[in-house]
């Protein structure tokens, strides 16, 4: 069985920079501060479908 993946989208510019494995026990969307290559700084990234 393949692992389902979701992407993390930057809240400022909207680009999807990171891919993560989806866990079944996670009920709320993940929010992490990551570096955005487009913005050039650390911004909040939210889990998107």
From TrEMBL:
GO terms for biological process: translation. GO terms for molecular function: structural constituent of ribosome. Pfam families: Ribosomal_L33. Keywords: Ribonucleoprotein, Ribosomal protein. Belongs to the bacterial ribosomal protein bL33 family. NCBIfam families: PRK00504.1 (NF001764), rpmG_bact (TIGR01023). This is Large ribosomal subunit protein bL33.
